[in-house]
Amino acid sequence: MTDAARTKATIYVAGLENAVNDKILADAFVPFGEIVDVTLPKPELPSSTDPHRGFGYIEFESPADAKEAIDNMDQSEFFGRVIKVAQAKPQKNASEGLGSKTAVWESESYLAKHAVREEDRLGAGEGEQELEGVTDPMQGLEGLDVAGPKPV
Fold it and tell me: Sign of torsion, CA 66 70 73 79?
């Protein structure tokens, strides 16, 4: 299965109770189709006592099964909580966007969007040469540093 098809067959489930584990989650969503994988991300802090972060991902065999699960389970009650079920978004590259370790202007996507072409740079240099012949409009006004009317 390609990554695009895999993303369409994966759903995001949020608002899970701590008592929910991957087997319970799989059992709740198996009526909608064949489940390939269930993932409950663990807390990032090692000192956390929570078994998961309150959300999970379920990958179905087909995108139609995933859509069916979203349509039937979104905003339903599960273990005493209302859960949100939606299409999973593709995971972002860790080297781009907020939280990355590199500056935004060093990324390929930024350079592709904002790079100045060589011919534009040359054109800007010619414009500076044309401005050298123009006299400064403020030239000769150095003695007028006192504001107000001239004394009589």
Answer: positive
Please list the pLDDT of the chain residue by residue as tens digits (152 residues). Answer: 677 777 789 999 999 999 999 999 999 999 999 999 999 998 888 888 888 899 999 999 999 999 999 999 999 999 999 999 999 988 766 655 566 677 777 777 777 777 776 666 666 655 555 556 667 777 777 766 666 777 77
DSSP state of 56: E
Query: Alpha-carbon distance 47 to 32, whole Å?
Result: 36
User: What is the C-alpha to C-alpha distance for residues 36 and 10, in angstroms, rounded to an integer?
Assistant: 9
pTM: 0.60
Surface-to-core class of residue 129, CB atoms within 10 Å of its CB (0-12 exposed, 13-18 middle, 19+ buried) = exposed
Query: Distance between CA 36 and CA 94 in Å, rounded?
Result: 25
Q: How many CB atoms lie within 10 A of CB 66?
A: 25
CB atoms within 10 A of CB 96: 14
| Residue 53 contacts residue 41 (beta carbons within 8 Å) | yes
DSSP state of 58: E
